[in-house]
Amino acid sequence: MATTTPLQTGFCFWYMRRGKGSNNSNAKDKDASSESKSETEIKEETPSQQLSSSPSTTSGPPNPNAATGSNPYENSVKRIATVKTVQEFWSTYDFLTRPNDLPTTTDYHFFREGIKPTWEDPHNSRGGKWIVRLRKGLASRYWEEVVLALIGSQFTGIPDGEVCGAVVSIRYSEDIVSVWNKTANDREITDRLRDGLKRILQLPSFVHMEYKPHETSLQDKSSFRNTQVWKPKSAMEREAASSSGGAGAGAGGSAISGSSTGGLGPTGGRIHRSGSWGDRDEMRGPKSKRDIDRSWR
Predict the structure, then answer these.
(1) Is the same domain home to 213 and 236?
(2) 220 and 113: one domain?
(3) 39 and 173 belong to one structural domain
(4) Which whole number is the average pLDDT over 59-69?
(5) Strand ranges inside 144-277, DSSP E
(6) Residue where a domain stops, chosen among 177, 193, 224
């Protein structure tokens, strides 16, 4: 009998496809994931786990919460598999389509077992997430780095159970990787998580990361709008100098801003905050107001 190496804690892979064709994509992905499980694994699933991965969760009597959109969202998130050993992780991960090859408006979620990837989950309700926006084509690499960091407990200096999970969101002109944590009001812990994420992803020093508490997401019904933008001190100093010299509006040194905050590229040129850091070398003239103010739900 082959030996297995247990993970420190179990994790669940989840999948969500927004928009047209989501039902077909979910069915195809679930069929694919089922092939990577053995009959024993399927039998060992609890009834609640089986329910969460069943298409029947999208039907049933009307729910008064449906008007808020929370119930349809939760029903649209499908559990792919639960992994508790290194072998189970790789047998699932190797089978999944890489993020770069996923259709737009698709999300992968990788969360600790027992935590649903929803704002309302008791483990998430008082937390938030760090957001990294990426140029198209980089999502697969950075998603793998984050997932391996989670199962390998590479977020050092952070209490066990503080990091709830991670999400990769495939969008039209950028992709987004976010890491969720349990307590948004603990500045020291959130800063440690930010620094750990920068270290694991080896992000350039000028990268502007964003944080958003889930309570704010529940209020404005969005995932990536109205975020708090963290900038390295050097970037804030450059923006302050640029602002005092009259170069551009709204380029003050504040680290907190809305969705249209600007940033500085390595050559001092203005770039819009909602763009990915990988776009810094590909700016081709001024952007329209629609591009600058675009937010991703």
Answers:
(1) no
(2) yes
(3) yes
(4) 40
(5) 163-170, 175-181, 209-213, 228-230, 262-264, 270-272
(6) 224
Residue 186 resides in a domain:
yes
Which range of residues forms the domain containing residue 274? 230-293
* CATH number of 83's domain: 3.30.760.10
End-to-end CA, the chain? 47
Neighbour count for residue 32 (Cβ, 10 Å): 13
| 261 and 211 in a common domain | no
Q: What is the pLDDT of residue 206?
A: 84
pTM of the model: 0.67
Q: What is the pLDDT of residues 265-285, one digit of tens each?
A: 333 333 333 344 444 334 344
- The mean predicted confidence, pLDDT, of the chain is 74
Number of independent structural domains in the chain: 2
Between CA 281 and CA 42 the distance in angstroms is 48
pLDDT at 1: 56
Q: Does residue 40 belong to any structural domain of this protein?
A: yes
DSSP 8-state assignment for residue 227: P
201: which 2 tokens?
Answer: 């992803």
Give 251's pLDDT tier (boundaries 50, 70, 90): very low
Question: Do residue 15 and residue 132 come from a single domain?
Answer: yes
Residue with the bigger pLDDT between 165 and 246: it is 165
pLDDT of residue 3: 87
